[in-house]
Amino acid sequence: MWRRLKLYLEFVKIEHTLFALPIAYAGAILAGEITPEIAFLILTAFTGLRTFAMACNRIIDREIDARNPRTAKRHLPAGLITLREAYGIALVGLLIYFVSAFFINKTAFLLSPIPAAVSYIYPYLKRFTCLSHYFLALSVAFALLGGWIAVTDSIAFPEKLILFALALLFWEAGFDMIYALQDAEFDRKEGLHSVGGHFGVEFAKKLSILNHGVFFVLLAIAFWGDQIVSLALLFVGILLFLEHYIIREKHDEGRVQMSFFYLNAVLSGIVFLAIFAQFLLSTQLS
After folding, report:
1. Prediction pTM value
2. Residue 217 counted as domain residue
């Protein structure tokens, strides 16, 4: 049983929750104080949706994954789990997400189909347009906005939150382009529309840098005047530099894993901690 559960968690790459869960909590903190109940429901909603999204991605792409030497050993192509099990995981994740949204508040529940639909549509877009990188990035922007909605039961987003959400679009699109570098040659042969496959690896690297530059500028504008967050931007800038420095010459799986996963997980955590510390400081001063 535990071995099977471990396979299921590996199938949906549960560790990748570290990317955007801190962002969801950042949105909640920007809205005000979070109750333990809301904090728990944000966790279950986000994890449920993340599970559904990854399971859908793996199900929809299973035939492509089987043809790609890098992904042929994934759970579905390798027969480690069945297609029925994969659908079951997706449905359980979706159910947890919707139930959590229902208990959060009315606004969260009414809007909950939108992120779910985006998660389902994304894998198909890779077959048609390079804009799929930006479409995927909607997920992290929704995480931020969802955190705000969970606390306020409202979509009256302040300017700071909107700028932050826009910044996140460029952040995730940029690092998704880095992740896709591993399959640039395969994507080109298969007619898949990653930026690297469509325009070449060097162009993808430069566009990723541009995206992260826009992310940094928008983040700085959004939190202009917030002392702690402004200080944290120094570390964000260093992490972004390292992210691109690591893959400047080679983009093998080990380098991409470091650039795409580890550094961005740290970046996400730093941004959350800075916003949390700023909230505590503002609370003490008020």
Report:
1. 0.93
2. yes
